[in-house]
Amino acid sequence: MGTRAASRTAMTPFWLIIALLSPFAESDDCPGAAKLYGRIEVVESFADCEVQAVESFPDLRVQLVDSFADDPGECQMVENFPDYTVTFVESFPDVKIEYVDSFPGPTD
Hints:
The structure is a single chain. By secondary structure, this protein is of the alpha/beta class. The protein has a domain at about 35-105. The chain is built from one helix and seven strands; from the N terminus they run H-E-E-E-E-E-E-E. The N and C termini lie far apart (about 60 Å). The model is unreliable at about 20-25 (pLDDT under 50). Keywords: Signal. This is 7(1) septoil knot domain-containing protein.
């Protein structure tokens, strides 16, 4: 009985650390294709969302605008005070995007 209680107390800090770190590991700030719009800043690391530019089968059709990016798929590229930050990746993106000149928005 004494060794079982000792091993249980030795494991307690391990499970406490796992429990404290798990919310940070599962945190995902990416709004998804339906809500990705507004002022967007491209960063190298610690982005809210990882995107991949594709030419077919996108999750979101993106139109770059100069101002008033108020609808899904409309993005204004900025360097200060973004609504979201993104980084471009080659594989395993949160959202696949295709650049368009008209009719931006999520694909169904």
